[in-house]
């Protein structure tokens, strides 16, 4: 699946991400990531979705936040809930960051990037960090590169992972240090990583 097709799949189920029980998903991990640098600065939420929970958390810590998503419906809902925020409707594989950011989050999003573009997207996001900037994202906790399709949420969705060794190699080559790696939903292979630009 291409990112535009992923966007269409999420268009059809966007409202599901407005359910109240999802408001706390990932907040603990983001609060931990925020401890690695002083509050304030510019931030980017990649795959920002529609709830705005990370945007509000970052704003409460003094960040000016932008959102980016490939789903037009997610962006529409997000803009209604966060009218003061700039949102980019774009494919992260093709989008060029307009500036450097002090904090970047890509929660449950860039694992939808085609495997052949995954390394380049990680390099791009690490490259968009300002010195000392923090990047938090999720991936599958596998040892080797892998990709799959499923329809567990209804519409077809694609996932890819580089594997832990390759992911750590890519971020190191991009000038970042892994500050935290956690299987945060064990025994599920849901992996959270926090990296910092040196």
Automatic annotation (TrEMBL):
<keyword id="KW-0808">Transferase</keyword>
<keyword id="KW-0489">Methyltransferase</keyword>
<dbReference type="GO" id="GO:0008168">
    <property type="term" value="F:methyltransferase activity"/>
</dbReference>
<dbReference type="GO" id="GO:0032259">
    <property type="term" value="P:methylation"/>
</dbReference>
<dbReference type="InterPro" id="IPR041698">
    <property type="entry name" value="Methyltransf_25"/>
</dbReference>
<dbReference type="Pfam" id="PF13649">
    <property type="entry name" value="Methyltransf_25"/>
</dbReference>
<feature type="domain" description="Methyltransferase">
    <location>
        <begin position="44"/>
        <end position="133"/>
    </location>
</feature>
<protein>
    <submittedName>
        <fullName>Class I SAM-dependent methyltransferase</fullName>
        <ecNumber>2.1.1.-</ecNumber>
    </submittedName>
</protein>
<dbReference type="InterPro" id="IPR029063">
    <property type="entry name" value="SAM-dependent_MTases_sf"/>
</dbReference>
